[in-house]
Design goal:
The chain is α/β, with parallel strands linked by helices. It contains 15 helices and 24 strands. The protein starts with a helix and ends with a strand. Bound molecules: NADPH dihydro-nicotinamide-adenine-dinucleotide phosphate. NADPH dihydro-nicotinamide-adenine-dinucleotide phosphate binds next to helix 9.
Length: about 550
Amino acid sequence: MATRKATKKATPRKATRANNTKSNGKFKLTYATMFNPPELMHTRYEQALAQVKANMGKDVGMLINGQERFVAEKFDDRSPINTDWLLGTFQKGSKQDAEDALATAQAAFPIWSGMKWQDRVRLLRKAAANIEKRVYEIGVVMSLEVGKNRMEGLGDAQETADLIYYACDSMEMNGGFVKEMGRDPLAGFNATNFSILRPYGVWVVISPWNFPFALAGGPSGAALVAGNTVVFKPATDTPWTGRLLAECLRDAGIPDGVFNYVTGPGSTVGQTLIDDPRVCGITFTGSYDVGMKIYRTLANGKHPRPCIAEMGGKNPSIVTKNADLEDAATGIVRSAFGLQGQKCSANSRIFVDNTVKDKLLDKMLEKTRAIKVGDPTLRQNWMGPVVNATQYKDFGDFTEELSQAGTILHGGHKIVGVKDDFDYGKGYFCEPTLVDGVPSDHRLWQYEMFLPITMVEGFDSLDQARRRANDVAYGLTPGCYGSKKEAAWFFDKIEAGVTYANRPQGATTGAWPGFQPFGGWKGSGSTGKNAGGLYYLPLYMHEQIRTLVEKAK
Ligand code: NDP
């Protein structure tokens, strides 16, 4: 527990390490700097790719109480680039495994929460440094497991380190969240009042497959630095990435039992974790349906418990008649099709002033035609495959539905066949797809398809654009292109947690901790506070006021 002395010593060291660290030698990795990366990045990625490929196909254990755990039932982790590539065999954990992980996390809580916060910060910074040391290996694993291109894989890995550093910096800047309050006047007594934020206990982290490192390591880092112990379950599509996180934490010297990694289906292992009364808080990132189910399950417990649920998006961009159409087209295409449209922040709805619609579409079509789809570990390919067979099937179903409802301006097909010695039919490759003319009341204006499909609609007034943009259950990452005055109007009127204006690097994507803390309003998020930002870490602690009265001498 932090002391009063610690409060005095704490100084605002820096706003965030992300502002001033060149963590990868010659340059600082962020989604924005990777827009045009230096040669060194490619060389190091290719070295790591060769090493990781030589290491594929192993039987990989869970990590519970610092021990490897192998069980009889396994599942295969195959690459969406080529499903013949067996990345590894992972453990299909049971209810018992999940319960064992919870028991060990509960047993470790008194020791971990009883440590000085400065010691936890030191260990977590070491874990973040371990991630940076392995950043190329981790990026490559995400390319193979999710289908991320080089920049996306590396960005996810480096972002995780920065999220953990940010949590450490936040703890430090706030003096471990030990604050002296006012002294109430009591004649004849000395009274001191302190506000202290303390950890809750066992924290469960459940992550999605699309940002399998950052959305596991970010919440885990915050939960741990705050003093909670963690049970972490990765998505079934990305167990290898999850395992690498567990190794980086273990190798930093985090004591056994403080961070536990369990694998297995959401419907069994995940469900056991959310149903267990020993759980004191959860961070879930994933779909709206599962997130709301978890939120409601926690509310049905014996007493309220925090549930940080980060859920879907259906992000609009608004392009006005005053926009720089070149920047708009660049940013929109990057956000619509980056990571094959499988980002919660993907730009899936485009609203453009009718007077500039044709011009914008021409530019977007030119840029979309230039996108290279293929093995994402290769430098020339910007789009890889979609993540799994379900996503691949959904692409076929949605494009069929949209071709009947409107006009497919580009794409609309799965990619099969052999080209340049690469067999597209072995993976899940889809064309970037741009659709126009779908009636405003069509269900797919509301539904998060989570695929490389984006829909365009013209508007006649800004008010109409505002209504259309806000008319969804989500509120995550809208974008706008227009004059400075229109940008101010947009920020004021849009209902969402992360908003961008006139950004060519991405209309709706590319947030970075310390720069664009990430979180959503409405059906996109449960807390209204953004990860990698000023108000995030306190979500992992509850407040205790300590009033001590002593007789005056
Ligand atoms: P899912 O909701 O399908 O799964 C997310 C996680 O929940 C997985 O680990 C899954 O395990 C687990 N899970 C599934 N069912 C249960 C259950 N009953 N109890 C406990 N855990 C369960 O989402 P996806 O992985 O498909 O991710 C895509 C979604 O994530 C999109 O909607 C996207 O918008 C959203 N997302 C939101 C972000 C944000 O910050 N707001 C960021 C990134 C993604 P398993 O894989 O084993 O089924």
